[in-house]
């Protein structure tokens, strides 16, 4: 899906790591939400509340998922999942455009 219709957008940006990662929250009529964002090259660590599906629209990064011993390369057109209440790390190689879906 390249476009969302009938949604509301929260105007205030979500900014993390001094602006290295930014996103906007998109809310759907059924109550679900996603964020659309950009990650600058760098190293970042996140903690999830809900399960997350990270769809990489464009860019190149490595992700270290919870309980994993090896980093996995993820490029535009690919995705990865992170369980709820988990920590994961990413190493962003190039400017990365992403869509994060929250699964409750």
Characterize this entry briefly:
The protein has strands at about 10, 15, 20-25, 35-40, 40-45, 50-65, 70-75, 80, 85-104. The chain has a single domain (about 10-104), classed as Jelly Rolls (Sandwich), CATH 2.60.120.10. With about 100 residues, the chain is mostly beta strands.
Textual characterization of the structure:
The structure is a single chain. By secondary structure, the protein is an all-beta fold. The chain has a single domain (8-103), classed as Sandwich (Jelly Rolls), CATH 2.60.120.10. Helices cover 0% and strands 62% of the residues. It contains no helices and 9 strands. It has strands at residues 8-9, 14-16, 21-27, 33-39, 42-47, 51-64, 72-75, 78-82, 87-103. Strands 1, 2, 3, 4, 5, 6, 7, 8 and 9 form a 9-stranded antiparallel sheet that branches. β2 (14-16) and β3 form a beta hairpin. The relative contact order is 0.27. The model has no long low-confidence stretch (mean pLDDT 96).
Distance between the termini: 21 Å
Mean pLDDT: 96
At the fold tier of CATH, the topology name is Jelly Rolls
Uncertain segments are none
Biggest sheet descriptor: 9 strands, antiparallel
- Helix tally equals 0
Overall helicity:
under 10%
Q: What is the domain tally?
A: 1
Percent of residues in β-strands: over 45%
* Cα shape: globular
H/E series? EEEEEEEEE
Q: Could you tell me the number of beta strands?
A: 9
Nearest-angstrom radius of gyration? Answer: 13 Å
Just name the CATH architecture. Answer: Sandwich
Protein name: Pyrimidine/purine nucleoside phosphorylase
Catalytic activity: thymidine + phosphate = 2-deoxy-alpha-D-ribose 1-phosphate + thymine; cytidine + phosphate = cytosine + alpha-D-ribose 1-phosphate; adenosine + phosphate = alpha-D-ribose 1-phosphate + adenine; uridine + phosphate = alpha-D-ribose 1-phosphate + uracil
Pfam family, one: Ppnp
EC number: 2.4.2.1, 2.4.2.2
């Amino acid at each position: 899906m390249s476009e969302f219709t009938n949604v509301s957008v929260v105007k205030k940006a979500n900014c993390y790591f001094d602006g290295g990662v930014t996103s906007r929250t998109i809310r759907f009529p059924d109550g679900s939400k996603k964020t659309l964002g950009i990650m600058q090259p760098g190293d970042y660590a996140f903690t999830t509340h809900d399960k997350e599906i990270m769809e990489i629209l464009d860019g190149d990064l490595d992700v270290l998922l919870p309980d994993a011993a090896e980093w996995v390369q993820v490029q535009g057109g690919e995705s990865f999942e992170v369980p709820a209440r988990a920590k994961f790390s990413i190493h962003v190689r190039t400017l990365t455009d992403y869509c994060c879906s929250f699964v409750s």
